Every structure is written in C-alpha cells, then in structure tokens.
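FAQ

Q: What does a record look like?
A: Structure on top, sequence underneath. For example:
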C-alpha cells in the first residue's frame, strides 16, 4: 500500500480566467433626476391642495363668525317686529298674513346694512311660515333646516353651516346659486321670554360667494412662492444626492476594478511561485532518494567488509582495535538509520511510503518497540514504566512501521528528558480505537513550535539548545505512517512541564478508508 502525499505540502493558488472585466455603469442618473422631478411636482401638488383646504377652512370659519355677529342684530330687530304684531296665544302665521306688507317692510328695514340675502321664519316645530324668497317652499330646493334642527334651536342649540352653492331668490327677485353661511337663531317676543319660550326660529342666509375666493386668493401668491421655493430646494438637494451618489459609485467601481486587477496579478505571481516551490520540492525529494540510494550501497559494503575483517581477526585484536571496530560498527548503524529515514521522508513526500498490513497484537508491538530503545534508556539511566491494558488486543497494521513509530516517540522522550528521569508508556483501548501514549518529564514544546512540529527538518530552538541529536524528520515519518493506518497523532505539552504524545489508531481500519478526525490537542 502506498500513502498519498501530505496535502499541506501541495500549495497552489486558485486559477483565474486571465482577465478582469466589470460591466460598464448603466446611465441611471437621468432616471433618478426624472424621478426627483416627479417627486417634487407631486409633493408640490399635494402641499398646495392641503394648504388651500386649510386656508379655505380658516376663511369660512372667519366668515361664519362675522355672519353670526350680523344675525344677532337682525334677530333683535325681527323680535321687535314680531312683538308688535302678535300677542300671547296668537298664531304667528295668521298674524303675519294679516299684516304681510307691513311685516315685509319691517324685515327689509331690519336687514338694511347687513349682507343678508334671505330670511326665513319657522315655527318651533320646524314649519315654514315666512320667507323673503318666494321660492322658499320649492320642493326642489328644500327647507333650510329640518324639524329636528328647529327643535334644537328652540331648545337653545343654535347653529351655523356653510353651503358652497345654494339656490335662492335675491331681494331684487333674481334667482341665484350662491355660496352662503346659514345661521339659525330663536326669536322671542317680549312677553314670551319667561313664559312660552321662542315663538319662531329665524334662518338667515349670508352671501359669501365673493368672500371665500377673495380671502384665499389674497394668500395664493404667497403660498405658491413659499411652496415653489421649498420644492426647488428639495429638487436641488435630491439632484445633489443623486449626482454625488453616482460619482461615488463610479469611483468605487474604478477602485474595485484596480483591486481586482492587482489581485489577478498577485495570484498569477503566486501560481508561478507555487509552481517553482513544487518543482523545487520534487527535485529535493528526487535528490534525497538518489543520494540515499547512492550512500546506502557503499555503506552496505563497508559494514560487510568490517564484519568480515573482524571475524578473520577474531581474538587477535588488542583493546584499541576492538574499540575502533565497535565505533565503526556503531557509526555505520547510525548512518544506515539516517539514510533509511531520508528514504522514508522522500517516499512519504511522493506518496510512495509502503505499508504491509497484517494481524498484530498490542503487546507484541509494544514489547518490540521497547527493546529497540532499551539500550538508550539504560545509557541515560532512565526508568520506563510500561502498561498494556490488553496485550492480546488485535488489530491490523504494519508491525515494522508501528514499531518504528513507537520507538521514535520513546527515543524523543529519552533525548529531551533529564538523565535518571521517569518515562511512561501506556497502551489502552478507547471507543473502538487503540492508543499508544508516551509521557515524559522533558523540556516541553511551546504552542508556537507545536504548529510546526510536523514540518520537514524543523527543530525548535529549545530542542537545539538542549544539545540532543536530531534531524527534524522523525515526526514527519511518524505522522505519515500513522495516517497510513487511518490514525492521528495527538500532542499535549507545556514548556518545562513534559510532553504526552498519543498515537491513536482504529481497531477495524481498512486500508484506503477514511482517516480519523484530526483532534490533535496542540499540534
């Protein structure tokens, strides 16, 4: 089985179409200005209509008040006339019919000097008994007040109302449709004030046909000038906002176009640099593979000839020669291990690290790995506590590679921990996974260094300062092998407080299936 190369080693910027094009701004300014004109005209019409209605209402209320003041004098004069023609218990309509000419004269005298166009007299129950308009009883015109209105006036609730157009006959006998203010007031005889109450209801029609337009017309030029000025200012403001907004939009689009062009250029440069990095990385991997093979061949011959020479000399070597042969053998072994690591790094980078899966046990893997590093532990007088929860626990894996992983972790724990320190190696089962955990009392790893811990050839400043030997490729190989088994590497460490590394593998992993979620505590 071959492990795919690490995705973090492949960096490539996103591809672009090659050109940056933005649609040209659509000329919306003219439409915004047209909308502004329509808005201003509509607002002008609404405000003009509203102010006209308000001013007309104000003018009519003023005319009604004036009319009511005029009617008070008329009512007084009519009350004197009525008192002179009837007495207690007399019928007013009968009395007026008897002295019609004299009563007309008295009414005309009472209206003299007042802008009254017509006067009606009603009984308290609302029946018309007298009018200066001969057509007052015309059913097409109708009475000025209803029976209910007359009764309310008799009860003291006089009223005044405005008619925009009312058909009546003027004192000169000419019919006219005029705007009028109609007021109704009770009429009392001198003897009826404290006894029977009002004897009649007087309804007067005051002509305001010319007065209403005159009052509203006086302020029309002012109103139009004020509204026109306000609307002009509003239009200028809207136009300024539209033009200013359009200018900002154009400038923003131009700036965006420049930024997109700059981004495109930078992406192209990034793609070129990434291509160069990939080519350099590939050349590096090829070089490591080549140089490792070239070194391994003569090294094998050196080790073989040294072994043959030592056997042939046998016991004839003195102490000095024996130490030299031991040094030659040890350094050859160290050099072979280094070359093997370089080959593994190269294979991992190109996705060609091979794994041979078979059924293995937790205890077997742990024991073999411990035996590989026991000489190092003994040399540093360090004590390793091994705890395997279930030595017979089975799972599928490459025994040689797994031993290599655990031996690397134990070797790092020994190198970066004090002499005569205590190390721990635990193997436990957890939720369908097996965890090989190594804990030391060493120098620890800072959070910043943990972010780069699995980068090729990386060694922290603290590790270099400790003087411990290392190449910075061991953990890269560890992660490649672990991921090839569908597992993850979890690290928990604090500076000067030791490190705990857990290699977690699934018990039922099938080569090529999904890798465990990377929940590295600090990596």
């Amino acid at each position: 089985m071959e492990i795919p190369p690490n995705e973090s080693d492949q960096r490539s910027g996103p591809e672009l179409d090659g050109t940056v094009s933005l649609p040209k701004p659509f000329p919306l300014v003219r439409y915004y200005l047209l909308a502004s004109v329509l808005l201003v005209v509509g607002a002008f019409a609404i405000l003009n209509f509203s102010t006209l209605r308000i001013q007309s209402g104000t003018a009519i209320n003023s005319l009604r008040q004036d009319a009511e003041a005029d009617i008070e004098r008329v009512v007084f004069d009519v009350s004197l006339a009525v008192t002179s023609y009837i007495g207690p218990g007399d019928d007013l309509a009968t009395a007026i019919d008897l002295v019609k000419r004299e009563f007309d004269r008295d009414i005309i005298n009472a209206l003299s000097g007042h802008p009254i166009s017509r006067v009606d007299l009603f009984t308290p129950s609302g029946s018309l008994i007298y009018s200066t308009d001969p057509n007052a009883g015309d059913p097409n015109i109708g009475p000025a007040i209803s029976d209910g209105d007359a009764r309310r006036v008799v009860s003291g609730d006089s009223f005044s109302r405005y008619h925009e157009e009312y058909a009546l006959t003027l004192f000169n006998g000419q019919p006219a449709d005029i705007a009028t203010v109609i007021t109704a007031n009770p009429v009392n005889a001198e003897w009826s004030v404290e006894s029977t109450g009002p004897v009649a209801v007087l309804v007067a029609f005051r002509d305001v046909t010319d007065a209403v337009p005159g009052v509203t017309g006086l302020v029309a030029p002012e109103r139009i000038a004020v509204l026109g000025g306000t609307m002009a200012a509003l239009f200028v403001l809207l136009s300024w906002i539209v033009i200013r907004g359009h200018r900002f939009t154009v400038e923003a689009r131009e700036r965006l176009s420049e930024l997109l062009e700059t981004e495109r250029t930078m992406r192209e440069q990034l793609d070129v640099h990434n291509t160069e990095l990939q080519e350099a990385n590939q050349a590096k991997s090829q070089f490591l593979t080549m140089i490792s093979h070239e070194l391994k061949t003569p090294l094998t011959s050196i080790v073989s000839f040294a072994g043959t020479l030592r056997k042939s000399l046998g016991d004839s070597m003195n102490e000095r020669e024996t130490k030299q042969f031991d040094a030659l053998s040890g350094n050859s072994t160290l050099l072979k291990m280094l070359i093997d690591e370089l080959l593994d790094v190269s294979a991992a980078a190109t996705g060609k690290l091979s794994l041979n899966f078979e059924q293995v046990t937790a205890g077997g893997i742990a024991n073999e790995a411990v035996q590989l590093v026991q000489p190092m532990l003994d040399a540093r007088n360090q004590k390793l506590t091994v705890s395997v929860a279930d030595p017979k626990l089975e799972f599928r894996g490459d025994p040689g590679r797994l031993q290599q992983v655990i031996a690397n972790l134990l070797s790092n724990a020994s190198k970066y921990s004090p002499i005569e320190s205590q190390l721990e190696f635990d193997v436990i089962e957890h939720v369908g996974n097996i965890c090989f955990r190594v804990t030391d009392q060493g120098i620890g790893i800072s959070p910043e260094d943990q972010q780069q811990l699995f980068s090729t050839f990386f060694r922290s400043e603290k590790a270099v300062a400790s003087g411990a030997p290392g190449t910075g490729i061991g953990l890269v190989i560890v992660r490649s092998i672990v991921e090839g088994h569908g597992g993850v590497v979890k690290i928990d460490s604090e500076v000067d407080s030791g490190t705990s590394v857990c290699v977690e593998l699934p018990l039922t992993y099938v080569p090529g299936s999904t890798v465990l979620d990377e929940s590295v505590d600090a990596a």
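Q: Is there anything notable about this one?
A: The chain has a mean pLDDT of 77.
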